[in-house]
Fold each of these.
Amino acid sequence: MTAELTRGQNHPLPGARLEIRVSAGTPVLAGATLGDENGTVHGVEGVVHPGAPTLPGLEVSRQAAADHRLAVDLDAVPDSAHRVSVLLALPAGGSGPARFGAVAAPFVAVTGLDGDEVANYTLTGLEAESAVVALELYRRQGAWKVRAVGQGYAGGLAELLTDQKLPQAHQLAAIIHEAVASGLARSIPAPPAAAPAHRPEHGTAPRTGPSGTAGPVPPTSPYDSQGASGPGPQTPGAPGQHGAQQPYAGGPVGPGEPAAGQPAAGGPIDYSHPRRQTAAPPPPPPAAPPAEPGQPARPVAGDATGWSMEERLYNQVWGMFEDLARTTAAYRSAVDFADSRMEKELDQALSDPRNRIGGQGDAAREAARGRHAQLVSQAREVLDRDVAQLVAEAEVVEPALPAAFARWDNPVWHAYRVPMEIPMAVRLGDLHLPEADRIRVPMLIRLPLERGLWIDSGRSASLDGSFADPHEMRRLGLETAVAHAARLLAVYPAGEFTLHVIDPAGSGAQALTPLVRSGVLAAPPAQGAAGAAEVLARLTQRVDLVQMALRGGAPDALPPGLDTSQQLLIVNDFPHGFDDRAVNQLRYLADEGPAVGVHLMMVADREESAGFGPLLDPLWRSLLRLTPVADDHLADPWVGHAWTYEPPLVPPGSQVLQQVLAQVAAARGSWGR
């Protein structure tokens, strides 16, 4: 029976090998400290954290996530450690929440490796704290117990570690946050709370995973801006608002309506559209006819809540993404338990002198391996069943996706017309896991973009172990950037998306041909240092002007002729042709541009930029890294799996990209843009 602890309560632990599961409403970092009888941590070697994720008997996640699984083996913990303090903290320096009082109360549970829950604790009552000691595992008369602590610290990790008498508290806190920032840079932003990833069944129950277990409320994006400091680049709207809105009006407003972004009397700027509905969204369409008894339910495209079929499909795709992440996590946990159990049984067999001679030892080892194989087989059966269900769902969802969500080979592009409205999201590739290679999950990113994109043209190993030629990687990188840019142009209404290109040495002329020939560029690709400086100065000035207008509460006071459409700048062959001033302008555009409709897409090799030193580190972290070849560098926002990303390349010989760009150019011409 599970013990539901309140603050200060303790409970005996039944064994040494445990798993501590953390569920939070937003990405948090998890760690643990090893203290003596008084709780004192004597050095950084007694702290396990994302930058140093393993210690004897402890292992934590390498990144911030909404869910964590901490592996604990108390028998392997050093004899000098009498307290294992499990700590949680909000990432520092990001646009996410800055205090636990702004998010749902974190939930922690101690389980055996078989999944049976021993004790749990909900950390209520937190307000200004940004770090907290959630649980404490401690020795008492040779046995281990768990205590619910819930001690929060408004001063964050540095204050928490200082309270545990760690001499290098502030330095270690900085190292931990740096490691977390690097992890968040590779995490795919989850949908904002306004567009839940879980699908209510006819508005009554949350979406259940393939195994039938309901997941928690989906986390907000690690890049959402509803922290204590107020709204940032994007503010999620009410249900049905399709998430964040552009922070300034890109078109006319209706008669008698205030301009978007006009501040209320004495209040902050309201970025929401004045005509947005705030009622609950309608229920999903009627479900498919019931399946045969004993068979899984038949999948239906659009089986999710939302104001439109587009929103329903978006939520359904994210539900599939989360289901696959969680069922794979359950499989990996089961395999880890089987491995740990077999190792323990083999150790016990070898430690008994009677089993060292004769066939008893061989029989014991064979029995341990047999039980291991059985556990792994059972876990694989569950995973295969869940994956089969998701594959069936993907087979009906993929053909039903609109152009913004579809692959380039989807027939929907044959009927393409320039849209009249901005879609909720855009597809920037596919994701899959090695345990479930049969299914590809669309990687949908909300619009307008919250972060710029970095197309990594560096030397990379392909999935078959071979290495791509550096020149070939640069070519593939720019071709991938062109495909991304073409898709963004295609999903925006005519005149609402403007594309700029900087190609200092002219090395990308061939890859840029589709954009140049179609006439969709605002101007020919800028070349040379002077051309790059002119484009950067113009876009930097645009960001400054829009920011000043918003801060002054006068978004309609922008200079006449200012292009208020969304702007995308493609930078090729960085850092060649860029000086320190240009680098600072790029950093400024990456940090401040998305909030006012200016987005950055860099095609670059980070190693070639090493000459700039740490100046560029914040730039790389602020961009979402994508690759022109399949690579397992992205992480989900729930359990932090390493997902293999596949770029959305146009099929060989297909003319779909040229046809789409021709329609975009024709529509732009009719609008006089």
Amino acid sequence: MGHPTSPADLIIFTRALFRGAAQAPAPGAVALKDDRIMWVGAPDEVPAELQGPDTAEEDWGSALVMPGFHDAHLHFFHSALYLSPLAERFVGDNEADAVARLAPLAARRPEGSWLLAQGWRDYLWNPPAMPTKASLDAAYPDRPVAMYSGDAHTLWLNSCALERLGITEDSTPPAGGSYDKDAEGHLTGIVREAAAMELMPRIVAEFSTDELLDAYRAFEAYLNEHGVTAVCDVSLMAMPGLDFVRDDLFAELEQRGELTVRVSMFPTLLADRSRLGELQSAHTGPLLQARGFKQFFDGVSSQHTAWVHDPYTNARFAGDCGRPTVEASVMEELVAPAAAEGHAVRVHAIGDEAIHQCLDIFERHPVAPAPAAEGSAEGRHTIEHLENFQPDDIARLARVGVIASVQPRHITLDPGGPERDLGAERVPYMWPFRTLLDEGATLAFGTDSPVTDIDPVSAVYTAVTRRDADTREPEGGWLPEERITLAEALSAYTAGSAAAAQRAGEVGEIAPGQYADLVVLAPNPFDLPAEDLQQAQVQATYVAGKKVYEA
């Protein structure tokens, strides 16, 4: 932005300024004007012309001042919903306990309304067993219940819900989904993948716009409280009209001056690409924009729906390799014209074969240069999740220039699961953060909320220690050779996420001209042992130069 010519609105001083790009923190000062950073430098070198009579100053002492955390992958609608009074969120100890935890929701919601919850994980229960509608029917025979799994790929319904949704034993599920049946051919209440996802709009239809806006406001506040200043709201499902990227709710908050998070929207990539253009035309402000597309190549490893090259170690049938959600040729037909038009594409690819095929497609179809906003970087494709690699693809990811959008807390979601499903030979190539960075890849960190909580400090802890942020297991870390440094983790959560959002140069670093999105942490995490990183607490959060949270 050149040499400043007018006083700053605010000058922030600190003895620990982390500018980004994995640099070590050092004493510094940051001058903010309107919604931008106008100057950065040493505390004793602040230009006199910046310090006008109306310039406020804040000295954060030894606290760390850094770019705001940027969640590169979450689902805003469901995250807001499950943290609101409209629904519940829990894992449960077992099937009976999960049913019992619905009681507070049932008490506060209107009689006859849906009971909606998310978070159960049967493999973490004691005993680990898939639930059925029978337990829900016993507790709620006359009220519809919908329980989404923690990974959001499986739905557990009671008989009343099945009836309200019109699902019978003769119903045909959509492609890529299933209605589970028992040995006698009766519905169990378990609905999987695409079949589960397409039901969500009908289940949440009873919630009013005002109720949803309240949920969005509360989730914004929760994000700000945890130092999150920007998010990528990515499509939840590939089916037309079901991406749950609710630009209408964001726009209402923006119009009211209540949008306190910078939002980059990524709707589903379809043959009809008009939705992105409509979003980009409608939302041109700095806080709310649409930046690219999202697609899906496979499912999840725990359900054997992630697409792997060799059969699962605990194969359920001969040739059990999962499956692509669409054939590779169809994916290429979707990606090629979008990339040629200059649009970046983000693809959910968890299994090693999905990753391999996705890299093939992205290598053949890089993002074409397109007119971009001032300061924007060249567009880059992104792969989401990337749980296990074919060894040669780790280096290829960096060579092709594809961003790795990963969620550190996924590493410890299913203790023993990788060994169970993929076996010892493939485990060393799972979430290889250290190797990816050493090969020159760009990491972008996020949470996949509501799959894991949005707290970035906990995610950073897991990336640095390879241990679960709640249980601190396993001792010594899971694949500890893949640990990364604190500076690298923070860079992935700021500059890396900005790259995935197609907003490099706008956010992600503390540099003149970038948006004034900052967070203050104390104690300074760089002064803490790795095991104590979670002691660092958010003291203040700034979005567009305005303080939106203070402890």
Amino acid sequence: MDSISGIPQLDRMTAVWEHVLKKDGIKPDDSFFTLGGQSVMAGSLVSAAGEEFGVRIPLRALFEHSRLGEFTEHVLGLATPSAPLPFAVSTDVPLEMTAFQRRIWLAELIDPSVRNHVPLAWRVEGRLDPDRLGLALGRLVAEHEILRTRFVEDDDALSVRLRPPWVPQVEPLDLRNAPDGMRDWLDAALRLPFDLESGQLLRAALGDLGDGRQALLLCLHHLVIDGESVPVLLAELDRCYTAPDRPQPVVQYREFAAYQQWQRDSASRDTDLDYWASALEGAPSDTPLPAPRQPEPNGAFQIPLPAGLLDALRAVQSAHGVSWFMVAATALAVTLHRWTGLDDVTFGSPTANRDEPRFAGLLGPCLNTTVLRSRVTEDSTVLDALLRMRGEALGALEHQTVQFDDVITRLNPVRRFGHTPYMNVMLNMNLLDGHAAVLDGTRLTPVLNDSLRSENAKFGLTVTMAEQDDQLIGLVAHRGDQLSAEHARELADELADLLIRFPEALKEPVLRRG
């Protein structure tokens, strides 16, 4: 790396890496993967570096040149300038919904028992004033249109409209002698449906835990938030709480909806659809799960994962140029291969469509869902499956702007009620450290509760991997009409065992013989 050490371009790239990865003192030989990089960060880093150097950088470049110095050299050798935004999106564009919003809204219309709620909980070190908090939430609603958007069904047509600003009520809770109080409030908030036409898709509570501690509890509808915009929500709430007299212009969600529509109408859409048609040609549209004889209640539980697992896997990540997501996806794929005996399985994963820098700090759901396919032969090893999954994941990320609904329309797979084609199994990744925050000097630490997931099981099997304080937390949720609690735990145990042994399991055959 001596050829570029000390040059201004390396300093500029180092600044980009340190900003995205939130680490200081990154050296040219440091690897993206050993620094804790994961797939969402990869998209943000490539986008930020491309903007800084005025070139378009393929996502796979970071995986093929994962060290800071070699990545910088590669970027400096690129000659293709990045294309500017197709148009300057302005706030006077029409108010429209995105494909993601339409999909989950239709899901609730078809099955009113479906709850697309997003529960959020933090332990607060310090004291928040409930009146100031309510006013801050009101200012947040006033400045961000997405938090006062009405979803209206008129004459079989679905449309969105704005309501005037409103101030959320902060419910006071006495949790000093209620160890399950946070969970009880969140469970109740999950069960209570939102009135989508009201434009009030946010509930809030502030609990007293005693000893100078509090709990901040929020429940929002997925129509107005996703996991990647939770840090935006917290940063904006802090601004509205601490500097109420200094409003700032914000990017509105309607601007993202207009940009997404431009993408849908662009020439690249056909190319991306062709990619998915090829990638999923002949793939099974359903991953079979052993359904119980009689439907059981939905369930959720935590997967036992040891401390230090992330550190143990980083050598694999660096050696093979893979992210933690790719390792987790491979482990899930291998478990499904062994569980079903099939050599071809598919599952889905949400992706954060925030690569355009303009929308990196947008409050609102910017999600798409992509399909990951794993194909193996009788001789395939776990390492073979990992390298193939690496290619599948990179291809999916590079073609994620095509909406999942358009892919399904193009492929027209066989459908079963209650089963989403290609993704009756889902893999979610959640970086909880990104949900920590400081609010007017108080420290907010996120709380993850596995019991919250069972009420919201929408797929046959959902595996969630959360990272907090450099430790992994694994959750499993399952629909009781498609997978029994006993089989769900057996599958989770196999997945956990493989993850724990992953560095040593690379030479194992994927399919069990005999």
